[in-house]
Amino acid sequence: MANSKRDLFLKRRLRVRNKLRAVNSGKLRLSVHRSNKNISVQLIDDVQGVTLASASSLEKDLGVVGKNNVEAAAKIGSAIAERAKAKGVEEAYFDRGGFLFHGRIKALADAAREGGLKI
């Protein structure tokens, strides 16, 4: 029996997370979640189990509510880079989860890099 799309997604997500755990040297994790309508990102310290900063398309002050496009993802990426800098964070691992690295995920990562966050 063939795997469903959900099963393949879960496999990809586990594969990415396991690779990050193997090479993680105390760096923070920039975790992305994308739905059909929204996108959100969190800067997570796995050692302490704490979320240091987050940004989402649901935040009204970013001005991207209701927009699920590449420009909105870029604004969220620059917002998380700004918030990370405010917390004194310059480096993180990019955890794309099970999502493929293109479109909104890539736009978010590129904007975070342009904002000064080393991914």
Structural notes for this entry:
This protein is α+β, with helices and mostly antiparallel strands and 119 residues long. It has a single domain (5-114), classed as Nucleotidyltransferase, domain 5, CATH 3.30.420.100. It is 39% helix and 21% strand. It has three helices and four strands. The protein has a four-stranded mixed β-sheet. Strand 2 and strand 3 form a beta hairpin. Helix 2 (70-86) packs parallel to helix 3. The longest helix is centred in the N-terminal third of the chain and has 19 residues, at 5-23. It is globular, with a radius of gyration of 14 Å. The protein starts with a helix and ends in a 5-residue tail after the last helix. The model has no long low-confidence stretch (mean pLDDT 90).
Q: Mean pLDDT score, rounded?
A: 90
Give the oligomer, counting copies of the same chain as homo and different chains as hetero. single chain
CATH class annotation: Alpha Beta
The count of strands amounts to: 4
What class do helices, strands and sheet pairing give?
alpha+beta
Question: What integer value in Å does the Rg equal?
Answer: 14 Å
Count of DSSP helices?
A: 3
| Range of strand content | 15-25%
Largest sheet at a glance? 4 strands, mixed
Query: Given the C-alpha coordinates, what overall shape results?
Result: globular
CATH fold-level assignment: Nucleotidyltransferase, domain 5
- Helix coverage percent of residues? 25-40%
CATH architecture: 2-Layer Sandwich
| Overall number of domains | 1
